[in-house]
Amino acid sequence: MKFLALDTCTEACSVALIIGGQVEGEFLHVGNRHSEVLLGMVQRLLSSAQLQIAQLDAIGFTRGPGSFTGVRIGIGVVQGLAFGGDLPVIPVSTLALLAQSAVARHGHPWLLSLLDARMGEVYWAGYQWPGQGSVRAVTEEQVSPAHLIACDPRVSWCAVGPGVTPYRQSLPAWIQGQTPSSPQETLYPDARYAGPLLAEAWQCGQVVAPEDALPLYLRNNVALKPKPAP
To answer: Whole-angstrom Cα distance, residue 62 to residue 68?
Structure first.
């Protein structure tokens, strides 16, 4: 299979070409400059591989949760590329990609993905890695204050992601005690590790048309404009 994968949901931006077991990609910390660098990253990868968009099988992307602006930019670019190449798209969770990225680097079987949701809250979800392939969600994706994270405290969770450090003192004690100064806390979702998630989604038929590439905000009310006062 030939997939293009993109992630723009945090202050990092990553793009990857995943062809069979071969992966080529770029990962950059860009702050809020995704719109300035994303298409250039895609074009460099395709040019290096001597591929046209239409030669791919699908485009994978993170649908959120994450930065509202980043999510919208990523989906907009994915839709444009997919329409141009007449390709289906594969939505994956930003939190799942974060967990998959952690597995690829450290191999811990139980991952608690945390993203900073601002407003004193975190986006979070728990994942289990069975030893090969993609991670499996063991909780729903949620947004809540850090102290309200609720996972099985008997499991040796490894908390990962940019949501760990800002809320370390607010995390439940059973998380704080298991991830002291953990190097995984600086990990970001990385499209270069999206292969197992995309392969499983493809095999399960979890692909959609470009127009059905929809964001997942979790905190939808923030994305809505306030109604004018009567």
So the answer is: 12
